[in-house]
Every structure is written in structure tokens, then in C-alpha cells.
Amino acid sequence: MRPLAALGREARLALVALQFLTRLPLPAPLARRLGWDPEWLNESARHFPLVGLGVGLLGAAVLVSAAALFPMPVAVGLSMAATLWATGAFHEDGLADCVDGLGGSAERERALAIMKDSRIGSYGALALLLVLGLKAAALAALPLGWAAATLCAGHTLSRAVAVGLIRALPYAGDPAQAKVKPLARRVSTAGCALAFAWAAAVLAALAVLQARFAPYALPGPRAWGAAALAALAVGWACGRWFRRRLGGVTGDTLGAAQQFSELAVILAVLAMLGR
Questions:
Q1: Mean pLDDT score of the chain, rounded to an integer?
Q2: Is 92 helix (H, G, I), strand (E, B) or coil?
Q3: For the chain, what is the radius of gyration of the CA atoms?
Q4: pTM metric for this prediction
Q5: For residue 1, is it within any domain?
Q6: 214-254 pLDDT per residue, tens
């Protein structure tokens, strides 16, 4: 494939990933030209971390703007509200459904049935409260520059974790349900490598910014190393959990893994503050 054609194809896949992971609308002419092929969703998974970076940048922009007017906890709340709006609480919904299904001792089929139920249970409500509350508290405890950079890194790394789980584990849900509700169910080794390359590139760029322009206002390489290790550890733990309970992943479990690994990144950076 010629370079320009290959670049155009990757741009198309990135837009497909943007449409899948967010509620941000594309201009009507662009949406018509984009077209649709069900296989594109699987191929677009390689660009999920890039979309995560975009969501993180939105959250960081709102955070910095709001911090000029409000105390840090309020600015963090507004930032989180912006990212929740941008994604339509896509991953948070998966977190609640996953923990409702797997939080108890239900067998595989019963757990899958619980996860399909649109109603939220006590396990799901507690998971949302704890994860969102911890993210807000940890971000509010960081200096402004650290918090803004961590939003970018957390949203990027956590999407890479989800892609890694798609690659590592089979789809465990109902195939008929997957046809009704589109889901990236597989990704190639090359696609997974590209997803992790996006995440590594973002961490490298943040480290360069810190070294050249903001040695004290942004986290350094040690913090980003800790963040990457934390995300990988949570991804590994989630993979073991999902394999043991379900034999693979579903859309809801991927949303839960994204939320847990994003929280792990924020906590890791906070733990490195002052070290």
C-alpha cells in the first residue's frame, strides 16, 4: 500500500475509534465520506490510546481553565464531568456492570446475565463511588501541572491496557449480543504493538516536556515509569480475574479494566510526588 493511502487508512481507523469510544460528533460531510465496515472496529483498536489522549487533553484543558477560577477540588470535578460527557460514561457503565456481575460468587452464566441487566446493583454503585471518588481525591492532591499531565497519561495508558486484554483473552460474551452492540473483539499482534507504542510515545513526550521546560511543574521519568508499571500490573490482575471467572473478556470487563488502570496511574503518580 502506498504511503499516502496507508496514512489515509490509519486516519479513517482513528476516526472510527473516536466514534466508538466517545460521543463527539464528526462533521456530517466527513461522516458520510468515512463510511462503515464492521471489520474496521477491530482494526481501529490500535488507535484507542490515541483517542484516550484526546479525552485526557480535554480533561486537562478544563482542569487548567477551571483552576484559574475555582479551588482545585472543584476544578477536578469539572474536569471529570467533561471527560464523562465526552465518553458518555462508556467505561464507567462497564465498570458498574462488571462489578455487579463479578462482585459476588455467581457462576459464569449468571454473572453474564447480571452484566447485561441495565439496572445497577449495590456492588456496581459502590465501585463507581470508590473509583470516581479516589480519582477525584488523588487528582486534587496533585499540583496543577502534575494533575493535567496525569490526566493525559492515565486516559492513554488505560486504553492501551484494554487493547492488551482484547489481544490476550478471547471474547467471553454472547456472540449474538456482540452483533447487536458493536465491540472490538480481536486485535492483531501488530495492532496491539501500535497501541502500546502510542502509550509509550505519550509518556516519552511528557518526560521530554518535563526535562526541557518544566522540571518542577510536571512529573519526571520515574513517575511515568511507576505509572506504566501500575497500569500493566492492574491489567495483568484484571486479565487473571476475567479469565478465571468468565474465560475471557466482554465489553463491560474492558470498561472496568480501563477504569481500574486509569486509577492506578493516578495513584502511582501521586505516590511518586516528592520522591
A1: 90
A2: helix
A3: 18
A4: 0.93
A5: no
A6: 787 899 999 999 999 999 999 999 999 999 999 999 999 99
Given a contact cutoff of 8 angstroms between Cβ atoms, the answer to whether 127 and 99 are in contact is yes
Distance CA 148, CA 161 (A): 20
Query: C-alpha angle with apex 160: 211 to 105, nearest 5 degrees?
Result: 130
- Within a domain: 41: no
Sign of CA dihedral 266, 127, 103, 96: negative
Position 136, amino acid: A
Cβ-Cβ contacts under 8 Å for 57 (sequence gap 6 or more): 152
Q: In the beta sheet, which residues pair with residue 249?
A: 171
Three-point CA angle 137, 262, 159, nearest 5°: 155
Inside any domain, residue 18: no
Q: Which domain holds residue 268?
A: 46-272
- What's the total number of domains in the chain? 1
In a domain, 39, yes or no: no
Angstrom distance (rounded) from CA 79 to CA 263 = 15
Residue pLDDT, tens place only, 114-169: 998 888 999 999 999 999 999 999 999 999 999 999 999 999 999 999 999 999 99
